[in-house]
Design brief:
CATH topology: Rossmann fold
Structural class: alpha/beta
Low-confidence stretches: none
Strand content: 25-35%
Bound molecules: S-adenosylmethionine
Number of strands: 8
CATH architecture: 3-Layer(aba) Sandwich
Number of helices: 8
Distance between the termini: 43 Å
Largest sheet: 8 strands, mixed
Length: 230
Amino acid sequence: MTIEHVPVPALRPSEYTAALIQGLRARVGWIRGADALEIGSGSGVVLATLGELGAASLFGVDVEQEAVAIGAALLAKLGYAKRSQILCGDMWTPVVGRRFGLVAANLPHFPMNNPEVSGRLPSWSDGGPDGRRVLDPFLRGLANHLTPGGRAIIAHNAFVDLDRSRDMVAKAGLTLNIAHTTLVYLPDDKLEHMTESVLGREEGRSIHRYGPYAFADMHIVEIGAPGTLS
Ligand SMILES: C[S@@+](CC[C@H](N)C(=O)[O-])C[C@H]1O[C@@H](n2cnc3c(N)ncnc32)[C@H](O)[C@@H]1O
C-alpha cells in the first residue's frame, strides 16, 4: 500500500519547531544510534530530523489522530517506516515502561484562557492559564523514560517559569540548561488570549513590543543527568 503524505495546514511546523530542529542538529552525537521519542509529534518533522541525524529508532506520541496519520505518512515517505512508530495517546501513557536515549518535545505551553487560535487545533498551543498543563506532566515523567545518560531537548517559553521547570527535574536528579534563546513572533490572536497576569508580568521582560508587533523570548533547553549536557 502506498502511503500518501498530504500536508495539513493546521499541523504546519512553527518557529518553535524550527528552533527545536536547530537544537537537535547541533547535537548529532546525542542522536546517532539513540532510540528517540517525541511527545507531541504533530507534523512528524522533528522525528524526520531525528531520523536524518541517525537515530536508531523513532517513536512518536500525539493526542490527535490526524497528527499520528500525517506524521506516520511523512516518515514513510522519507523512508523511515521500518524504524518508526507513532501512537495516539496522552503524554507518557503509550510508552509506559519504555526508556529512550533522546526525548524531544515542543509541547503546547502558551498560557491562555481560550484555546482557540485561528488555523490551529486547540491542542496545538493551549497550556492552560499558567502554561503548565501539559509541560508539568512531561517534566514529572521524564526521568522514568530516559536511559542512563539519556537527554531531552525541549522548547520552553521564557514567560513560563523556567526556574520551576529546573526545580521539578532537579527532584528527579536531572539538570536543565538553556541551549539557546530565540525570538518568536506573537500573533494578535495568541496575544489576545494570553493570561492577563502573565502578560502583565512579562511585558518588557520576556515579551517585547514594537508598536503593534510583539515578540517573545523562547528557549531551547536540554535536560539530563549532571555531567551529560553540553
Ligand atoms: C506545538 S505542537 C508541536 C508539534 C510538532 N513538534 C511539530 O512541529 O509538528 C504540539 C503537539 O502536541 C500534541 N499534544 C498536545 N497535548 C498532548 C498530550 N497530552 N500528549 C501528547 N501530545 C499532545 C498536539 O496535538 C500537537 O501536535
